[in-house]
Amino acid sequence: SEGFDVGDMAATAITLREHVGEQIALAFADPAARLIAGELGDGLDEAGYLSADMAEIAARLGTSEAAVAKVLGICQTFEPAGLFARDLAECLSLQLAVRDRLDPAMQALVANLELLARRDFQALKRICGVDEEDLLDMLAEIRALDPRPGMAFSGGASDAIVADVEVRAANDGSWTVELNAETLPRVLVDNVYFARVSGHAKNQVEKDFLAECLQNANWLTRSLDQRAKTILKVASEIVRQQDAF
């Protein structure tokens, strides 16, 4: 039609990271949980699968794996269904759960995808406890699912990649590894302002609320500091290992 511009359409296409970021902002009011969710979002591959290691995220942020798992559970409710899955079976299960079709028979089918790949239908009928007609219906439902839900979004190929660290050659022939200050999140806690606001708290409930806010803010700053130290440590070790080459 007149006035249609493919360039404009490409410019407005939303990326997977942007789509997930919008849902994180709506789903998490707690800054600690939002930080964890952001790390999980950064760990998604282009298909929408979580490639990041839960234990590494917990260690990097100075929190527990249970806290990361709790946030992941909420992220796995995001649209489209199937995002944040750690493997194909989990991706399909998340989509089936939304459709209220994750019954025991379907769970057994999803847990034995290798048999489906081998087209061992006799074994699948036995494991799922269904007849041939029911199995065919179940397979049709599986085929209707999206094994790569993240691919519905723009790849964001035009986005510039900014490195977290900078490596420079030193005069003595060694390498200097530094954090890129432009990419570091900056969070400052104004204790003077906190003291002033706390002084006007009218009751214990308000005092407890303000104390919790301060605790969350301090946790956030410590976690960001730990994240920066971990990135620098890993980058320095990579440079050290590769220096011989």
List segments where confidence is low: pLDDT < 50 over at least 5 consecutive residues: 1-11
| Strand arrangement, major sheet | 1-2
Mean pLDDT score, rounded? 85
Strand content: under 5%
The sequence of SSEs as H and E is HHHHHHHHHHEEHH
Percentage of residues assigned to helices: 55-70%
What does this protein structure show overall?
This protein has helices at 6-12, 16-27, 31-42, 54-61, 65-75, 88-98, 104-110, 113-117, 121-128, 132-143, 191-198, 204-242; strands at residues 165-169, 175-179. It is mainly α. The chain is extended and about 70 Å long. The model is unreliable at 1-11 (pLDDT under 50).
Summarize the structure.
With 245 residues, the protein is mostly helical. Helices cover 57% and strands 4% of the residues. The protein has 12 helices and 2 strands.
